[in-house]
UniProtKB/TrEMBL annotation, chain A:
<keyword id="KW-0202">Cytokine</keyword>
<feature type="signal peptide">
    <location>
        <begin position="1"/>
        <end position="27"/>
    </location>
</feature>
<dbReference type="InterPro" id="IPR010681">
    <property type="entry name" value="PRF/CT"/>
</dbReference>
<keyword id="KW-0964">Secreted</keyword>
<protein>
    <recommendedName>
        <fullName>Cardiotrophin like cytokine factor 1</fullName>
    </recommendedName>
</protein>
<keyword id="KW-0732">Signal</keyword>
<dbReference type="Pfam" id="PF06875">
    <property type="entry name" value="PRF"/>
</dbReference>
<comment type="similarity">
    <text>Belongs to the IL-6 superfamily.</text>
</comment>
<dbReference type="InterPro" id="IPR009079">
    <property type="entry name" value="4_helix_cytokine-like_core"/>
</dbReference>
TrEMBL record, chain B:
<feature type="domain" description="Fibronectin type-III">
    <location>
        <begin position="526"/>
        <end position="619"/>
    </location>
</feature>
<dbReference type="InterPro" id="IPR003529">
    <property type="entry name" value="Hematopoietin_rcpt_Gp130_CS"/>
</dbReference>
<dbReference type="InterPro" id="IPR036116">
    <property type="entry name" value="FN3_sf"/>
</dbReference>
<feature type="transmembrane region" description="Helical">
    <location>
        <begin position="736"/>
        <end position="757"/>
    </location>
</feature>
<feature type="domain" description="Fibronectin type-III">
    <location>
        <begin position="330"/>
        <end position="424"/>
    </location>
</feature>
<keyword id="KW-0675">Receptor</keyword>
<dbReference type="Pfam" id="PF21177">
    <property type="entry name" value="LIF-R_Ig-like"/>
</dbReference>
<dbReference type="InterPro" id="IPR048497">
    <property type="entry name" value="LIF-R-like_Ig-like"/>
</dbReference>
<keyword id="KW-0677">Repeat</keyword>
């Protein structure tokens, strides 16, 4: 291919023109509002990542508790874990939730679960387990921040924590150590269910908040650019 | 009704008061029974706590009593424990006793009762049991609540190896309950329909989060569990020890045992108790504790260290005298003063350990990392020590530590100081040697000296002074100053004799001088070189003692022979020494080292005594000689390798090995069979003389193939395996043949050249085209010997009229049966009449072929050609290709006409045919010579080729007929 001086000048002019019009591309316009879409996607990705992370953490922690908690078919009644936010919900109820409520429930659930998890972290004896728990707590804190970001993007206020209602890990003797282990078991189980539910929630939200096709095209173009 | 009730109460009160009065006054002796028995439980510890009092005691009365306690389980008749508890009792004193149950108290109902008796020598009359108290029932189950299932004990903590009893209490009769220990089902003992007991023996430590035990009902969502925390055995503290550094504080240390290994670590407490003072302190740390020494000069201490956790208490004891446990502080204010070249003083201070105590201090002096002096000094407060016999200009380190001199316990830490002694003048003269060369009439002296050792130098050598003293003119002195670290110098001197003084100088002074003399006579007399054998330890050299005054000997050698800077080394030896071992790390295997041994005269002049050469380790030769072969004959050849430098080999060449390969199975005399590295077999000649550089291989076979290979050998072995050189001995006669054949060929060639050059002459002489009868010697021979009548006819006399063309066919054989006569063809040259019936003028030349067989008889004649045959013969001639054929035919025919004649060759002119007719064997039809002249080519035909028709085969006899 023979490039002449004239061609080079033409290309340069074209490049300049593209650069001149770059601010006009909405997806690249940092001052413009990109909407909640990307942050919902990010939150969704984070829940999937946490799901994966929890799988290995729960395995280690339940082995640390010993049998029967690490047995695959162990399914104890939810006795002492009543204070844990429950992830399971009737399907119709879940469908009927509005975005604000859906996000609020997620935010509140993870706020509580994070507190319980920190209690778990303090109890753990081995350094490796403490490291894993601390890492997971950090990730969960990130998810909480991400949900808060989505809520802010959608204009929803963050739920205010009730004073003195900070959930804490119940001290051992009164509760019984076996029940405490059951609580830990349920905490991990509930966390797993919540992460699964959140993935569904954010997927639903993602679909709902998806921009119209034209905007999608422009977005893709911007990405391609 | 109310009135009746009031009356009844009044009556009972009156009855009670009456009874009390009776018991105090009437029922002697008085029984002392336990009263107000209360039983409480401690579920966690599985304990029953009993509390009671004895009321019937007088004021200030103290009695020894014994209480018998009975404990029954489930029902009162099932007594599981009976114990007598003795104690001193006061009036209204609350007495307590505890009992620990193996079975969790929740698992079964327990009942307790007791009775008492006075067990006091003061009142022997009261030694009888009181009545039993009523059964006090302890039933925890009833207060458990309404849960369907319970498991006990809750979260119990036991030590590894303990026995534990576990039970479940079920509220439902229908449900089957199954219990699991770490996921493994347990089988227990049914205590009652709702309670099952499991006995765990020797429980192990499993994990820090405890051992999980749980029970679940077959039906329903009921699951209950406990965690049994099994701790590791609590060990007693080890290595408990106390000491003081300042007599104010005691520091006690110990090694705690291993951890309990549980998630919630059992709190361990360490308590230090001193029995003499009765003081006790709770230690903050688990491995050490400080104890303040009392100011009342307590000397003896008896410590008890008690380690305690939830499960166990362990104690260790230590009794000691405080002054015996003094670990002094490290000395301070340590200085090294008055440092001279050989002495230094060390001063220090110590912390006092009492008014009358003395400290023992240890001083160590280090030089080059090793302890060179060690001294103990007693010190009160200030210490001082003089370190003597130090080396000048040397770095030292001095350190001091102290301990209690009266009762040694421990040394203090070292306090260390470094110092360097002052310099002193060098103590030894430098070791000097020289190398003398004569260059253009001058004497070039290279002086070498070895640097002084550290001990000899006594400081840093700054320069060397070289003083040249001309012995011929003693007043002349020349001084050279050579800065260190030079280890030699080169001097150009005239032929005069010099004495050279070398001194080493440092900042303090000058060393003694080293003297060496250079004489005008270099004295390089020829000395035979001797071989020495080196070993791993070096070269052992010895020499003949020199008569006369010898002040010493010097052995000189180069550590890098072959190098221009040969690294000259020398060794000074005393005058009584006649041998030495020269060793060096620089000696390498395979390198030839040359040693020169000098004697030093009283004038300090060295003179060469002996030369030695040798290898520290001989190696096999590194290369093989280039062998030249000469004098190759059928039976021998000579090998020579005169250019081979045997001296440059890494070992003394002791001779040569010659390997000869041949097809012969046996080796020649002087050789022996040898197997080469490639397993081939050959013959080996050993040449023992290393100076022999030629060798004749003899007794070979002519015209045979040989291969040879020559390699030198040293004491270690032979040189590298190389390629064999091939050689083939010549034939036995070939040289003779060459001597004869070559001259012959040369002669023949010469003759041929001559013949060629004189070919014309030869032709004319030997085989002219037209033979000259006059010149024919044959004819003349015949003529002279046999037939003098024969004359020679001149050609000029003959007028030709026809030419006979003879067709010669070489190689054509006629069969014996072929009888058809062939006739010569004649070409008529002259215009004659057509009729040839009569004889006409005809000249015919016929050149008779020389035929030895035919020459026995000479015949001559021709058959005239009939006119009929003429056209055809002419026609044949017109065609050139037919000419030879025709000629041959005619030629054969003509041969057929040759009669057998006399012996030898005859040359007959055709014109002389009538004369031939004289012979008896004339043809039947003789030609008419008068009319025809014929000329035929002469040629010699061998007998075999000439196979004429039957005519030639006929013998004379037949012709005669």
């Amino acid at each position: 291919m023979d490039l002449r001086a004239g061609d080079s000048w033409g290309m340069l002019a074209c490049l300049c023109a593209v650069l001149w019009h770059l601010p006009a591309v909405p997806a690249l316009n940092r001052t413009g509002d990109p909407g909640p879409g990307p942050s919902i996607q990010k939150t969704y990705d984070l829940t999937r990542y946490l799901e994966h992370q929890l799988r290995s953490l729960a395995g280690t922690y339940l082995n640390y508790l010993g049998p029967p908690f690490n047995e695959p078919d162990f399914n104890p009644p939810r006795l002492g874990a009543e204070t844990l936010p429950r992830a399971t919900v009737n399907l119709d109820v879940w469908r009927s939730l509005n975005d604000k409520l859906r996000l609020t429930q997620n935010y509140e659930a993870y706020s509580h679960l994070l507190c319980y998890l920190r209690g778990l972290d303090r109890q753990a004896a081995t350094a490796e387990l403490r490291r894993s728990l601390a890492h997971f707590c950090t990730s969960l804190q990130g998810l909480l921040g991400s949900i808060a970001g989505v809520m802010a993007a959608l204009g929803y206020p963050l739920p205010q924590p009730l004073p003195g209602a900070e959930p804490t890990r119940a001290p051992g003797p009164a509760h019984g150590d076996f029940l405490q282990k059951m609580d830990d078991f349920w905490l991990l189980k509930e966390l797993q269910t919540w992460l699964w539910r959140s993935a569904k929630d954010f997927n639903r939200l993602k679909k709902k908040t998806q921009p119209p096709p034209a905007a999608v095209t422009l977005h893709l173009e911007a990405h391609g650019f | 009704m109310a009135l009746f009730s009031a009356f009844q109460t009044t009556f009972l009160l009156a009855l009670l008061s009456l009874k009390t009065y009776q018991s105090e006054v009437l029922s002697e002796p008085l029984s002392l029974a336990p009263e107000s028995l209360e039983v409480s439980i401690d579920s966690a510890r599985q304990c029953l706590h009993l509390k009671w009092s004895v009321h019937n005691l007088a004021y200030h009365q103290e009695l020894k009593m014994v209480f018998q306690i009975e404990i029954s389980r489930i029902k009162t008749s099932n007594v599981i424990w009976v114990e007598n508890y003795s104690t001193t009792v006061k009036r209204n004193q609350v007495l307590r006793w505890s009992w620990e149950s193996k079975l969790p108290l929740e698992c079964a109902k327990h009942s307790v009762r007791m009775r008492g008796a006075v067990d006091d020598a003061q009142v022997p009359e009261l030694r009888f049991w009181s009545n039993w108290t009523s059964w006090e029932e302890v039933d925890v189950q009833s207060s458990l609540g309404h849960d369907p299932l319970f498991v006990f004990p809750k979260d119990k903590l036991v030590e590894e190896g303990s026995n534990v009893t576990i039970c479940y209490v079920s509220r439902s009769h229908q449900n089957n309950i199954s219990c699991y220990l770490e996921g493994v089902r347990m089988h227990g003992e049914q205590l009652d329909p709702n309670v099952c007991v499991f006995h765990l023996k020797n429980v192990p430590f499993i994990r820090e989060t405890g051992t999980n035990i749980y029970c679940k009902a077959d039906q329903g969502d009921v699951i209950k569990g406990i965690v049994l925390f099994v701790s590791k055995v609590f060990e007693e503290p080890k290595d408990f020890s106390c000491e003081t550094r300042d007599l104010k504080t005691l520091n006690c240390t110990w090694a705690p045992g291993s951890d309990a290994g549980l998630l919630t670590q059992l709190s361990q407490s360490y308590t230090l108790f001193e029995s003499f003072s009765g003081k006790k302190t709770l230690c903050k740390y688990k491995s050490w504790c400080n104890w303040q020494v009392s100011p009342d000069s307590q000397e003896m201490y008896n410590f008890t260290l008690t380690a305690e956790n939830y499960l166990r208490k362990r104690s260790v004891h230590l009794l000691f005298n405080l002054t015996h446990r003094v670990h002094p502080m490290a000395p301070f204010n340590v200085f090294v003063k008055n440092v001279s070249a050989t002495n230094a003083t060390m001063t220090w201070k110590v912390h006092s350990i009492g008014n009358y105590s003395t400290l023992l201090c240890q001083i160590e002096l280090y030089g080059e990392g090793k302890v060179i002096q060690k001294q103990n000094v007693s010190v009160k407060v200030n210490g001082k020590h003089l370190m003597k016999k130090l080396e000048p200009s040397t770095e030292y380190a001095a350190q001091v530590r102290c301990a209690n001199a009266n009762h040694f316990w421990k040394w203090s830490e070292w306090t260390r100081r470094n110092f360097t002694t002052a310099e002193a003048a060098p103590s030894e003269a430098p070791d000097v040697w020289r190398n003398v060369k004569s260059v253009q009439g001058h004497c070039v002296v290279t002086l070498f000296w070895k640097p002084l050792s550290k001990l000899q130098a006594n400081g840093k050598i700054l320069f060397y002074n070289v003083v040249l003293e001309n012995l011929d003119r003693p007043s002349t002195l020349k001084l050279l100053s050579i800065p260190a670290p030079a280890n030699g110098t080169e001097l150009t001197l005239d032929r005069c004799s010099y004495q050279i003084h070398v001194t080493a100088n440092n900042s303090v002074g000058t060393s003694p001088a080293s003297v060496i003399a250079v004489s005008g006579d270099p004295g390089n007399k020829e000395v035979e070189e001797e071989r020495v054998k080196g070993t791993e330890d070096g070269f052992c050299l010895s020499w003949k003692p020199q008569p006369g005054d010898v002040t010493g000997y010097v052995v000189e050698w180069c550590e890098r022979p072959g190098d221009p800077l040969c690294d000259l080394q020398w060794k000074n030896l005393g005058p009584n020494t006649t041998s030495t071992v020269v060793s060096s790390d620089a000696f390498r295997p395979g390198v030839r080292y040359n040693f020169r041994i000098y004697g030093i005269s009283t004038e300090r002049i060295p003179y060469l005594l002996e030369k030695k050469t040798g290898y520290s380790q001989e190696l096999v030769p590194s290369d093989n000689p280039q062998v030249l072969m000469s004098n190759l004959t059928s039976y021998s050849f000579t090998l020579s390798w005169k250019d081979y430098a045997a001296e440059s080999q890494p070992g003394f060449v002791q001779g040569y090995s010659l390997y000869l390969k041949s097809k012969a199975a046996r080796c020649l005399p002087g050789s022996e069979k040898a197997v080469l590295s490639d397993d081939s077999i050959c013959c080996k000649y050993k040449i023992d003389n290393p100076k022999q550089k030629t060798f004749v291989v003899e007794n070979l076979q002519p015209a045979s193939f040989y291969e040879f290979f020559l390699t030198p050998y040293t004491s270690v072995g032979e040189g590298p395996q190389g390629a064999f050189t091939k050689v083939t001995t010549p034939d036995e006669y070939s040289h003779i043949l060459i001597r004869i054949i070559l001259p012959m060929i040369f002669s023949i060639l010469l003759i041929m050249i001559l013949c060629y050059l004189k070919s014309q002459w030869m032709k004319e002489k030997c085989y002219p085209d037209i033979p000259d009868p006059y010149k024919s010697s044959v004819l003349s021979l015949i003529k002279s010997k046999e037939n003098p009548r024969l004359t020679i006819m001149n050609v000029k006399d003959c007028i030709p009229d026809a030419i006979e063309v003879i067709n010669k066919q070489e190689g054509t054989r006629k069969s014996l049966t072929e009888t058809e006569p062939t006739k010569p063809t004649y070409l008529y040259l002259l215009p004659t009449e057509k009729s040839h019936s009569g004889p006409g003028p005809c000249i015919c030349f016929e050149n008779f072929t020389y035929n030895q067989a035919a020459s026995d008889s000479v015949s001559c004649g021709h058959v005239p050609v009939t006119p009929k045959a003429q056209p055809s013969q002419l026609g044949l001639l017109t065609s050139s290709e037919n000419v030879p054929k025709a000629l041959g035919k005619n030629y054969v025919n003509s041969l057929g006409e040759i009669p057998a004649g006399e012996t030898n060759l005859n040359y007959v002119s055709q014109l002389a045919s009538p004369m031939c007719g004289d012979k008896s064997s004339l043809p039947t039809n003789p030609p008419e010579p008068a009319l025809c002249s014929e000329y035929k080519t002469q040629m010699a035909i061998p007998m075999g080729l000439a196979s004429p028709p039957s005519i030639t085969l006929l013998d004379e006899g037949e012709h005669d007929h």
